[in-house]
Amino acid sequence: MGGELSVFIDESGDIGSGSEYYIVALVFHDQSEPIGMLVDNLSSAFKLTPVGEAPFHFTPVLRGHRPFDVIEPAGRKAFFNAFAYFVNKVPFSYGVFPYLKREIRDRAHLRERLERDIRFFISEHLEFFQGFDLVKVYYDNGQKVVKTALHAALGETIAQHAIEYRDADPVTYRLFQLADYICGIELTELRYASSKTGVSEERFFGSRNLFRRNYLKKLRRKRL
Questions:
Q1: Which pLDDT tens digit goes with each residue over 62-94?
Q2: Rounded to 10 degrees, what is the CA torsion of 22, 149, 136, 223?
Q3: Upper half-sphere CA count for residue 224 (Cβ side, 13 Å)
Q4: CA distance 114 to 148
Q5: How far are the Cα atoms of 29, 96, 114, 181 from residue 224, in angstroms, in the given order?
Q6: How many beta carbons lie within 10 A of that of residue 13, not counting itself?
Q7: Gap between the Cα atoms of 96 and 9, Å rounded
Q8: How far apart are CA 218 and CA 214, in angstroms?
Q9: pTM across the whole model
Q10: Which long-range contacts (CB under 8 A, 24 or more apart) does 188-194 make?
């Protein structure tokens, strides 16, 4: 195959108190597949909103947090659906790693679990990864536990000379924001499955069946 593979990473939650789950998403994009027109179309759609070309961020859009607090719920839903349309059209694949935080003892345990799971995931799809001459990994180094686990897992499964790490700002890359969307959708499914959705999810997505049909199933077609 040759060519270059881009990998964008995002996470939802942290090891401390707060959300019940910790989720890491990896987005894979074959750089030979152009996405410029799709990105431009999305930017054009966002320019028509009160927040302009603000980066997509799942939870603030869903709950109306800044900067999306200036948009009425119907407008936020339109903003969200414009991004969901982009997700459905853009060529990519992904892997996702969800953890129930009460099963994680501490940061070291999370790093071990994440490293093991990413390593196993890559090994399962090794032919896919070995089809590229270069794997470019984009992460904002938001959480050290993710960075450490990712470097260790990749280093054991992919030749070091074929990996290039890049620090990057999620605001700059729509595929970073796509990884955030994946974390949000997968977390919402976990919340629906455990009957722990709140008013925001139910107003935004409706019933679990509607959520699965309109969002989850469309996204999961892209799983590697």
A1: 999 999 999 999 999 999 999 999 999 999 999
A2: -40
A3: 24
A4: 10
A5: 11, 10, 17, 16
A6: 18
A7: 10
A8: 7
A9: 0.94
A10: 188/215, 188/216, 189/216, 190/21, 190/98
Handedness of CA 17, 19, 20, 24 (dihedral sign): negative
Structure tokens belonging to residue 173: 């890359």
Runs of H (alpha helix) within 9-167 = 36-47, 58-63, 73-89, 107-124, 126-130, 144-157
**Residues 3, 98 contacting (CB under 8 angstroms):** no
Decide: 40 and 164 in contact? Cβ < 8 Å.
Answer: no
CA–CA dist 217, 211 (Å, integer): 9
Sign of CA dihedral 97, 98, 101, 102: negative
**Distance between CA atoms of residues 183 and 197, nearest Å:** 15
